[in-house]
Amino acid sequence: MKHIDFSVHIGQPELELFPHIICFGIRNINLSLRNSPRHCNPGIEIALSMDGFFDWIVENIHYRILPSEAIIMLPWQAHGGENDVRNIGCLGTLIIKPEAIQENGLFHLGKWSFLSSEDEKLIGAILTANTMPAVGPVPELIQMFLSIHREIIRKELGFQFRINSLILEILLVIARKINACDLLKGKKPELINVDFSGSNKVKDLLGNIETDYGTLNKKIKKLTGVTTKQYLTDKQIKNAVRLLKNSDYSITQIAHESGFYSSQHFATVFKKYTTFTPAEYRRNIISRQK
Fold first, then answer.
1. Which is nearest to 45 in space by CA: 53, 34, 36?
2. What is the DSSP letter of 189?
3. How far is 132 from 35, CA to CA, in rounded Å?
4. pLDDT higher than 50, residue 33
5. Contact status, residue 14 vs residue 22, Cβ threshold 8 Å
6. Domain 6-186 has CATH 3.40.30.10
7. How far apart are CA 54 and CA 47, in angstroms?
8. pTM score, two decimals?
């Protein structure tokens, strides 16, 4: 991704017309330079991996976001980077302060929003009831963050309306994604706990699901916005990350356990998703633990 290092905070001239934006940034994070201790924000924080991967602790639970995945933190949720450090990559951050947000679902964005009260109510209900802060993959979020950055920098005709529209679109996309994942869990729980071991084909991974592939692919595409293959590849990568971090398996063993047909294939796909090879990622973990 093109190098961008940009950040603005409430009170700065760039946000004078946007009192509801506490912070917006697209930063290239360096592991040795960037700390993220546990904290709470007065608003909704959306952290988006635009490149690389990031470990987060939210309410004492570990989450990892890969490229095009986001993690959503609400005002009452203490959060930060794992071991108080973020990983290396490009991270998009947006923190907005709604006029009202409560754990019981009360949610109102404020006068700047042109969503209906019913839509705001539904978004609030989805966000506050959500038990999985990590959301994704949502590739369209990357372009939305880049568009906000461009609008802030250029200040062209209608930029205030455009930025507010993009923020609303981000919230809508995230709420839909959360809702879709909840629906998917209810309709096809087999997809949540797929056994990847020894398999490298979608049809093999889905062999225990009594639905033909074409029908299932359409349903998953509608619910998640990605194909069945993309959905399962994301789960394969997360399974591999877990094993790299928590086991002493060899790279070849992890490739097999995660459903890749060879260690070379595993390394290629893993680097595409994380910007690191499996071996590089494991060395990174070991060096952090010393």
1. 36
2. G
3. 24
4. no
5. no
6. no
7. 9
8. 0.68
